[in-house]
Every structure is written in structure tokens, then in C-alpha cells.
Amino acid sequence: MEPKQAWGAFSIIVVLADTIAVALLIDLEYEPVLVAAIALIALLVYFYVLYKRYHVEVVPENDIMQFEDPDDLRILCTIYGLESKGNDAELRNRLLAFARAHGDSAFVWVAPKTVQFFGTALEMPPTAGATRTTGAKSLLEERTKSEANLSRVKRCPICNAKVPRKGSICKECGADLGFYVALGASKVGKLVLSEKAGEVRRKLRYEVPSLREDR
Ligand SMILES: [Zn+2]
Q: How far is the CA of 163 from the centre of ligand 1 (A)?
């Protein structure tokens, strides 16, 4: 099931739940106008968040070649709903195939597993002819620019450590700051960064020697 159809199915459930809540609250003699207004706002917020977070850029083939960390490749595979197992060559090939398949669109819908589950459960028929937008643009072409502007970046986007005055590598986690700052300018990049930041911070915490060992 395509993420777009899965979101369609999921959204139908959300709209239904919203409508039922309105009916119940009006039945309980709450002010109908107020209830309807709140229900409408809730729906608007839902669709806004949906669009902001799950309608993300297609990372073009050239950009995928610049991903060096296998963890980043794996995270990107997960975001696009692709198989996230295998070595970096396998992950990269999977992403390249995805980029080629979606090369004529700049954006693509992605959906977490729970949403995919709802879509499959409802068996929504696939819509014919996906909407075509402009082709995928590089997310990393701003990279050289962001490397020049690194002085403006105060904290590492991955581990939140202070950025060194010179050089473009984070001293704390070893992240290539130019790369991640450029990546973080896109929606899909923000998803990669938040996932990666969680993992790196967990790892850094484990590496701090415990007090007991110091004794
Ligand atoms: Zn860092």
C-alpha cells in the first residue's frame, strides 16, 4: 500500500472520529457552535501536521551518494518505508532505486507503520496517476554555502555540543557539520536529524564512564 493511500484511509478514520465527538458533545448539550469550531480547528491542525511532517522531499541520487554514515542510510530507508536491513551498499542501492522511481517528483508522502496498517486494513484502492510535480532537487547543493556560514551555527545539530571555532567536524560526535546543517534545511533532513540525534545522544551517554568505575 502506497503511503498516500494509507494516509487517505487513516484520515477518513480521523474525520469520522472527529464527527462522532461533535455529535456526542452536542448531545451532551454543549454549545454546538463552540463544539463545531473546536472540531474544525482539530482537523486543521491534523492536516497541517500531516502535510508538514509526512510530505517530504525525495533525496536525489547525487545526494544519496554523499551520505557516508550507514546509520544515515538506514534512517532514510526507514523514513521512506523501505527495508532497513543490510550493509551500506544494499541500503544505498535501495535508496537509489527509490530516488529513480520518484525522480520526477520533488516530494513524496511517507507514512509510519501504524498508518500503513490502517490503510491495509481498509484496503483502499490505489489512485491512478500520481500527481506530478517538479523533479527532485538537490538538498545538499547549499552545502558549500552552509560550510562558509558555519560560524553562525552555534550547536551541533546531532549532539547539541558547542561547535568548534575552526573546522567543520563536531569534536563531540564527529559529525560533518556542513553536511548535516545543509541536510537539516529540508523536511526529510529534519526527520533524519531528529532520528540520528536520538541515537547519537544515547550512544554518548553510554560512553560516559560511570562513577563506580572511577573509584
Ligand atoms: Zn556533535
A: 8
Q: How many CA atoms lie within 13 A of 104 on its CB side?
A: 5
Confidence of residue 137 (pLDDT cuts 50, 70, 90): confident
| Residue written as grid cell 508522502 | 109
The beta strand positions in 78-119, using DSSP E, are 107-109
Between the CA of 67 and the centroid of ligand 1 the distance, in Å, is 17
Coil, strand, or helix at residue 144? helix
| Res. 209 pLDDT band, cuts 50 70 90 | low
Do the beta carbons of residue 137 and residue 60 sit within 8 Å?
yes
CA of 174 to the centre of ligand 1 (A): 6
| Domain ranges within the chain, ordered by starting residue | 1-57+110-122, 59-101, 139-209
- 214 pLDDT band, cuts 50/70/90, is very low
Ion ligand 1: residues, CB < 5 A? 156, 158-159, 161, 170, 172-173, 175
Q: Mind listing the pLDDT tens digit for each residue in 97-129?
A: 999 998 888 899 998 888 888 777 776 555 544
Predicted local distance difference test score (pLDDT) of residue 205: 78
